[in-house]
Amino acid sequence: MADPPTGVSRALREAPPDRVVEAADRAIRSVLGASGTAVFVADYRSSGLWPVLDSRQPSAGAEAVPGVLQRCFSSQQPVRDLAEDGRCRLYLPLSVWGERLGVLMVELPEAPAETVVRRAADIAGEVALALRAADRETDRYRRARRQERLSMAAELQWELLPGRSVSHGSFQLAGQMEPAYTVGGDHFDWSLDDNRLTVTVLNGDGVGLTAALLTAVTVNAMRNARRSDGGLVEQAELASDTVFYQHRGHRHVSTVLLELDCATGRVGAVDAGSPHLMRLRGGTVSRVALEQQLPLGMFAETRYDLQEFDLDPGDRLFVVSDGVWAADPSGRETYGERAMARSMRATRLQPPTEAIGTVMRELQAFHADADLRDDAVVVCLDWRGSARREGD
């Protein structure tokens, strides 16, 4: 008999991209004897989980408990919810390569044995992979994620992202953009290649769609250099020249480029005018001092220097845009002066996927829950220490 996850995989592969949820429901009912399933996806702020519903099909998800959903999503562990009649709703994280997509709920006739939970977790992994792939071919899951209409600038920014989190044997990484539905020029990008992680965070000049278009050009110029085996300096210089020859110095992009050697913890860096780099080591938050060079696009043929620093196992790096660091909603001291360090220290026991939310929530509280005046980006990187890659 075929291994159950393989059977589910086949059903998911053969389903149209906009019907992955229905295909998963049929396969899981067959393989696990479930009476119902539901898929919930995280919204753009990762502040809520919302069902992918088909109005033609009743969903057991209508009875899902929000607190249990959030506990599963936050802990990234299966959670059982046993009803008085003996039925059990099993909540399973939907994540792939460390990116948290949502939660799969499976309704079972009785409390499952550990072997069933493990099998269901494997199936959830297959569903997550299928959803991530299908997301390129349909708008269905994007519609479920958004709780209000995105601005044109935000639409462009979110489509440009590599993801919102990623994990590896030696690191965990996560990022968040706010205000999620109207973000303009601030952005982040990353790529993992041959045990080297490249991370960039950008403050695009201007507001709205104009800033988003400038950032899109900059990100793709850096990707072009990176995908042609160019190092950080070449990435910065190509992006700078591209922006300059398009805008003749009237527009620029403040950017920090980082490359982590996942085996040694050595970090190469190019600081092109901002954002800010903070290190949490133990209980102490300190700024990583880098030589600040010209923002990208200010002058023709600007040349950049590479700097380096080391991470210790257990170190946490935060990269924040000016919209975080310089926030001063009431004319008092900026968020980066003292409040930001307090919020970063409060994340010590949280994974990066939760830590970015903590810093953003504290930023919102600093604004007394008023709308952010500027775009804000937080990226959080934990280096765990050297880890051998599978196959090495």
UniProtKB/TrEMBL annotation:
Domain of life where this protein originates: Bacteria
Task: Output the Pfam families linked to this UniProt entry.
Answer: SpoIIE
| Classification via InterPro entries | Bact_Sigma-Reg (IPR052016), GAF-like_dom_sf (IPR029016), PPM-type-like_dom_sf (IPR036457), PPM-type_phosphatase-like_dom (IPR001932)
Q: Which GO terms describe its molecular function?
A: phosphatase activity
Q: Name all PPM-type phosphatase domain ranges.
A: 168-383
Keyword list, A-Z: Hydrolase
Under SMART domains, the record lists:
PP2C_SIG
UniProt-recorded name of the protein: Protein phosphatase
Name the source organism. Answer: Micromonospora craterilacus
Q: What is the lineage of its organism?
A: Bacteria, Bacillati, Actinomycetota, Actinomycetes, Micromonosporales
